Hints:
Blueprint: H1 3-30, H2 35-38, H3 52-64, H4 90-117, H5 123-150, H6 158-166, H7 172-192, H8 198-209
Helix pairs in contact: 1-3, 1-4, 1-5, 4-5, 4-6, 5-8
Amino acid sequence: MDPVPFIFKIAILIFSIVLHEVSHGLAALALGDNTAKHLGRLTLNPIKHLDLWGSVIVPLFLMLSNTGIMFGWAKPVPYNPYNLRNQKYGPAIVGVAGPLSNILIAVVFGLSLRVLSNFSADAQVLRILQGFREIFLYIVQINLLLAVFNLVPIPPLDGSKLLFAFLPYRYKYVEGLLEQYGMFLLLFFIFFGFHLIFPIIDLLFRLIVGQKLFL
Length: 215
C-alpha cells in the first residue's frame, strides 16, 4: 500500500471531523454558551479533539481491511444546553452546525472540482491537477458521509437534536425512549442500515460534483 494516499486520507478525515466538532462549539458560543471556549475546544488543533478509537484505530482498521469505506469520530465538543438563549431550538441549531460545516466543505471543494475539470494546460500541469482532483474528490466524499450519517435521527447523533426540537409535545415520550436505547439503535443501524444513507450521499455528490459517487 502506498503510504502517501493513506496518510492524506487519514489527515482529511481527522480535519473534517475536527471542523465538524468545532462548528458545534461555535454555534453554542453564538447562542450564549462558552463551555467549549473555556475548555479550549474551539481550536483546529486535532490533538485537542482526537479520540483513540474513533480518530485512529477504527479509521486504520477500515483502511487496512480495504472495506472501501473510511469513517471515524472525535471527542464531542461539550456545551451546556441550559446556557443557550433559545432553549427550544438552541440544541437543534448546535446539532445541525456540525453537518452543515461538512456540507459547506463538500460544496466548496465540489465546485472547485468543476473548475479543475474545465482547466486546460500542458501534460505536466494536468498531472498535478489530477492529483488535486483526487484529493478534492475524497474531501467531498468523506464530508458528505459525515454530514448525512450525523443527520440520522438516532441519539447521540446530531439528527436526534433536530427530531427532538420539532417533535410534537404529545410524542415527547419518544425522546425518552430514544435517549434510553439510542446506543443500541445506533449500533443496529451501523451494522444493518448503514447502506441506506448511500443513495442520499450519491444524490448530493452528483448535484455538487456532477458525477457518480465512487464509494
